[in-house]
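Minutes, methods subgroup
Present: GH (chair), OT, SY

1. OT presented the first of two proteins processed in the latest run. Sequence and structure tokens recorded below as shown on screen.
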Amino acid sequence: MRRPCYGRLMERKTPTVLVILFILTSGCISSAPDLDGDGIQDSSDSDIDGDGWDNDMELNCSTDHLIPTSVPSDIDGDLVCDFLDSDDDGDLWGDFTEVDCSTDPLDNQSVPEDYDEDRICDSLDLDADGDGLPNDWEQARGLDYLDSEDYITCHGMSEYCLRTYDDFTFPESHNSFSTPEDGIIAGINHLTGLQSQWDDGIRAFMLDPYHPSELNNEKEDVVFCHALSLPNTPPCLFGSVDAFAWLRSLNSLHNNSSGDVVSLLIQNYQVPGEHLEYLLNETGILERAYIHELGSPWPSIGDMSLSGTDVVIFIEMEYEDNFTKLLPAWKHTWDTPYGESSQDEMTCDLGRGDANQPVWHMNNWLSTFGLSDANKAAQVNNYHTLLERALLCWETVGNRPTFIGVDYWGQGEVTNVTITLNKMSDWSDEIPPHQSSDT
């Protein structure tokens, strides 16, 4: 039997130090393993086989960290193996997303179509061109869902085109024509006329047509004025407005807008239906009137605009004859009480009409001796005051006010209140930031 190479040394009792030196230099023991020869012991080497891949990474990628020819597949060269890489081909589209979008996750030249660059491929994107209108909605209406220039906006936003008429809040001016700019000398309801009202966003108008006198009572004689509830008083004591010119101006402003719906609430007690219809027809209003079947759902604002039926005409007194485009207001809508003298008297209760209808008017003006009061208007039209009342009535009634009618629309911020309300889907939503009048 061969003895170990150091046996005789031990037998001769060679000094211990010499034995150790001999063992270290004789090759009887080898140095620590270093598979890749990089001078780092395998026990300390994070890449034992020297193939450029971390040992732990290779284990996770199911390759052998002790064989340099066994390396993970890494198409995009980002040192994250394809097995673990959420974007194998490095085209910035996730593998699963590419599969869903029917492109090749292993080919960086095969990338999903994304017209609006929102990182949702067109085949999965409900609004492929990013114009705020769903693809199917656009296709059904002849719009190109892959063309961001082929779209419609309603009241300033494309998203509002999807809202139904009864799910939008319109600012409304009471006795819209009763202004110094229109020639009314007393008993005015506003300081500025139609142009300013339109420019600021008023889209609903309360109008009072009359014949100026018993001698001027033909259909061509209809004017706007606000009659006093006093005996033996002519209807237009404080002046009158050319109703034909006023409505033609409204129609012209409407023609130059896009996607806006206009509503009229007409106090028609003194004008025959034929005369009112003539007035509306001659001014281009009647041809764009929407006919609503009582009990049927209201259409979207976008559909009303695209179909050219973008005016809704309500009349306070229903005629015996059938004027289908003149909707009886208190069958199709309802309103809150009006003409109170103090803010404490204002409620969300039923004033006139059918409270089961979703379209309704929140009357928001106060009177002094039966006349409009600018100081009181400034009080109740204040942004926070008006918003608080609108939200309270929304909560109480169960659906948003369709119209907020005011006197002295320029006193306070009725249009900004409606902007805020229209950004909300429910009264309990977080209230959006206040958009001040000077922004």
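2. SY then presented the second protein from the same run.
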Amino acid sequence: MLARLPTPYHLLKERTFYFPMKKIGILFGQENTFPQAFVDRVNQKAVDGITAEFVSIQEVEQAVATDYAVIIDRISQDVPFYRAYLKNAALTGTAVINNPFWWSADEKFFNNALAVQLGVPVPKTLLLPSKARPDDTNENSFRNLGMFDWHKAFEKIGFPAFMKPHAGGGWKSVYKVDNPDEAWRAYDETGQLVMLYQEAVDFTDYFRCYCLGGKDVLIMPYEPRNAPHQRYQTEMKTQGEDGEKLLATIKDYVLRLCQGLGYDFNTVEFAVRDGIPIAIDFGNPAPDADINSVGPENFEWVVEHAANLAIERAQAQKPGQDNLTWGTYVQKSARQPAAPAASGPVEVGSPVHETNDLGATPPTPTPAKKAAASKKSSAPKPVAPEGEVPTAKAPAKPKKPTAKK
């Protein structure tokens, strides 16, 4: 048998080694300018082993990996099928930006509560039960819910105030109210939405800030009272040393919030009152990035930094592993020691032989043996409230009694 000779050195030098290409995809909906610019920018950088394209979805099978190392998600908040697809992709190793599990769990009321713990000022805010009962519920579903005291809420929050969905965006179902009658009228229109009741901040400056990768921040003057296409057409009012301190504080707060929430691609809005930036809205995992609204310079910044972020994540991505970003809040919880595994025999429940109609037919009482009379409990039995979710309004003026004929 002939021995295998080693490959000559000059041939070894000329041999080309091929490694699998890592694909970056962007999943989007009706927007037009950012997705194409993002794909073009990634490909223009010509990084070895990395390419970008629009995500293409065919068959989705459980626990089967996608072809993408990284996916930028711009639409799953509106398409539940996409959200399920992205969770499966993340489970099998795709780095999804933003984390679809956290995005599904997140909402604005929790954001505000976390901001308080992170030391970021936010407006005073209350959570309101929905005006109309959710589907498949009745009065018995709300036996734990007490009457909402509107007058106490008005004293705590004051006027003017905003009423807006606790989970939502795009300025949908947002009401500004200046008195109790306007608050009640707005509330009557909200149907099954769970709403926030929040103090209005009278601001001198307002900013919207991009944050990418939990480290890169662009602070943009913003005027929310303008028409949508004119909101970035404004300038910062605070100048000089005070302005520099304000910008440094805003950047610090942006990083605290985005790192705490674990968002790779987010915007944070601040209203400045008496020199203090107050975080107004900071759960925007698919923020506006259209050149026609943010302007050419801001658009260039977000395209460049999004491309760099996606390339970094593709290079760091490890197939089959968890490549998601998790916020510091979740990381702290994950570090808690797990409960010890239970030991002991396996317990099996007893089968139910009689017809089970989920309580529609009252059970036939079985005769009981005579026993000594027990003392009745002093605690009253719970009584189910009737009608819609209980909310207390101003008492109506009593009607004058009609004279008897």
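Chair's summary of item 2: Residues 87 and 347 are 34 Å apart (CA to CA).
Next meeting: continue with the remaining queue.
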